[in-house]
Amino acid sequence: MEVRFWGTRGSLPTPGPRTVRFGGNTACVEVRTGAGHVFIFDCGTGARPLGDALTARAPIGASILFSHTHWDHIQGFPFFTPAFDPRNTIALYGPQGERPLHETLARQMELSYFPVALSQLPATLSFTDLGEGAHTIGRARIVAQYLNHPAVTLGYRLEADGAAVVYACDHEPFGGALWRSDTAAGRIESILHEGDRRHARFLADADLVIHDAQYTPEEYRARKNWGHSPFDYVVELAGAAGVKRLALTHHDPSHDDATVAEIERHARAVAERRRTPIEVFCAFEGGRVTLGARGGAPAAAPEVASAPAGAVTPGARILIVDDDPVMRRLTKGALQNDGYVLTEAANGREALELVRRAAPDLVILDFVMPELDGLDVLRVLRADPTTVSLPVLMLTSQADEDSTRAGFEVGATDYLTKPFSSPQLSARVRACLARAPKP
Ligand SMILES: [Zn+2]
Ligand SMILES: [Zn+2]
Asked: How confident is the model at residue 370, as a pLDDT?
């Protein structure tokens, strides 16, 4: 397959003489398979030149895979010319965020913003809300997995022609530190946070990974919870995952060509220090990569639960356990628009009582509480066969390695550090519920 970068900028288009080398258009990547199917990862402003290039080839069949519906990933769609040609068939896929994909895309084309409504586009369009899991589209296997971003966001692993390409935008580290200090860094088993380990398995042995690396490590320290990665995390993680080629993308709008080139140099130094044979580069507009010439079976896909489309769990019962009423209120506020039934407990004993009585679908558990703390509650839940696999999201101000390890060792499903943002908690809860074993 052929991969071509049409938009490599994050957040905001940034044209001009300072960005000519790496490009100013927002996120858009084209993947053309040997069978001639066109896949498009995201429709930032790079979708406009891509659309112009595709127009000459009509009729076309294309599948657009939206990572999420933040503006820089959808704003090019109204200008995607193949949608204006009745001979074309375009299938659009993406995670359901605040509302279904179709509705979000229609809203950005309301008359206040754009002269043509989504429903007036002449091409044959279809819309599918995707969840985490494996899907078959146009003879390719697509594995979708939730990323860590303050919006419901999917990463995609596309396997075709004996090769695998992963697109992971936008995403930031789950844990404070990547490695456990008691094991040798550089292997998937040495990753501290279960979320980062799952992410590494998602990338495992891919021929090409296209990954958010918006920040330098210094910038990231001041921008935690903004949903983007520092390049060193990405290189280390991809190196541990045995990735062959790594394209860093979603370049920060404030980074000129010299800064992005500097990031590329430093990122390669990280790979060298770890002695991983990974080939690292910063994605640039017009850049092409050919994959799959080796033939044979594609790199082994990670094991994933095959989830049905949608993946929203309306009416799920969530128990919020925190001794601090302000935190309980904030947590409720973050989830109030997601259609859950929310209950609260102010301490561990009350929590265990409510779990027994009300059988919640998920527990959000504070780490530090008087008497029975979060770990004690979790131990009791894991010792009981009826709650052994009940999803438990630990919400904690303890970001240190020992606490994180303790949380996962006792059986936490996820571990989120305070302060968190509302969309971030909402997305993490969504992922926990989607992964929960179905009765
Ligand atoms: Zn973005
Ligand atoms: Zn985003």
From this structure: 87
Chain Cα centroid distance, residue 23: 23
Q: Relative to the alpha carbon of 212, which ligand is closest?
A: 1
pTM value?
0.92
- Residue intervals of the chain classified under CATH 3.40.50.2300 are 317-435
Question: In the chain, which segments carry CATH 3.60.15.10?
Answer: 2-290
For residue 426, count other CB atoms closer than 10 A to its CB.
21
Higher pLDDT pick, 195 / 306 = 195
Angle, to 10 degrees, between the axis of helix 231-240 and the axis of helix 257-273?
A: 40
Dist. CA 214 → ligand 1 center (Å): 9
How many C-alpha atoms does 217 have within 13 Å on its Cβ side?
11
Q: Which fold is adopted by the domain 2-290?
A: Metallo-beta-lactamase; Chain A (3.60.15)
299 pLDDT more than 60? no
Q: For residue range 112-140, list pLDDT tens digits in order.
A: 999 999 999 999 999 999 989 999 998 89
Which two three-digit tokens encode residue 50? Answer: 């891509």
How many helices (H) and strands (E) are present in the chain, helices listed first? Answer: 11, 19
301 — pLDDT class (breaks 50, 70, 90) = very low
Contact, 321 vs 366, CB < 8 A? yes
- Tell me the CA–centroid distance for residue 27 and ligand 2, in Å: 10
Residues with Cβ–ion distance below 5 A, ligand 2: 70, 170
Count of positions (residues) in the chain: 439
- 317-435 belongs to which homologous superfamily? Response regulator (3.40.50.2300)
Ligand nearest to the backbone CA of 149: 2
Task: Give the C-alpha distances (Å, rounded to integers) separating 426 from 128, 248, 287, 331.
Answer: 21, 27, 35, 9
Confirm if 44 and 26 have CB atoms less than 8 A apart.
yes
**CB of 193 within 8 A of CB of 174?**
yes
Shortest-distance ligand to the CA of residue 28: 1
The structure tokens listed for 14 are 């940034």
